[in-house]
Design goal:
By secondary structure, this protein is mainly α. It is built from seven helices and no strands.
């Protein structure tokens, strides 16, 4: 796969993410939980597709992924999921019923923007991996992609505790600028990640 094709994938993937997220903000469907859960789901998708590809075709060194790598990745993602759902889905929004309801809709796939974002990423990444082959396979138990989740969780916690809990009325879906303020740091983070991926 050429560098140009790789750059095209990352640009398209970032653009679709931005457009769907902005649309979700306009619809009042985007919360801190939505964004972090989306990042987690995208990481789950990437991990599963990379593991399946490496299992069938071997890693860059020609070896198949070991059981330790596979189980280690799944375990880490499961721990992340429990933490994200409990903290950002429930605990930090316990006194805000509107946010709780929006989060639960997202969790059980009743959020159209979220579903489209996930579905398009699955399709895009599957096609990308088929085209890229073994290039950029990342199935380490704790790889660079997990760091993105760490950063997202830290940023999300700061936003949630710094703004959402202090001013709950502005972040319940009724105030567009409140939702935009919540999602802006994540959009900037995603743009930065996309640029870093294209330059790597």
């Amino acid at each position: 796969m050429s560098c140009g094709e790789s750059n095209h994938f990352h640009r398209t993937e970032t653009l679709i993410f931005l457009l769907l997220t902005i649309w979700g903000v306009a619809q009042g469907q985007v919360t801190v939980f939505y964004i972090i859960y989306l990042f987690w789901f995208r990481e789950l998708t990437r991990t599963i597709i990379d593991i399946l590809y490496a299992y069938r075709n071997g890693k860059e060194d020609g070896k198949q992924p070991g059981l330790k790598e596979i189980c280690g990745n799944i375990l880490i993602l499961f721990i992340y999921l429990v933490f994200i759902v409990l903290l950002f889905g429930f605990m930090l929004n316990w006194n805000n019923r509107e946010l709780l309801f929006t989060n639960m809709q997202t969790l059980v796939f009743r959020n159209l923007c979220f579903n489209l974002n996930v579905s398009l990423f699955i399709l895009q990444y599957a096609l990308y991996r088929k085209s890229a082959g073994k290039k950029g396979l990342d199935i380490a138990v704790f790889g660079k992609s997990h760091i993105i989740l760490h950063i997202s969780i830290i940023v999300g916690a700061l936003i949630q505790m710094g703004f959402v809990k202090r001013y709950p009325g502005y972040f319940s879906g009724g105030e567009l600028w409140g939702s935009a303020l919540v999602v802006l740091p994540f959009l900037l983070l995603k743009i930065w990640i996309g640029r870093a991926a294209r330059n790597s």
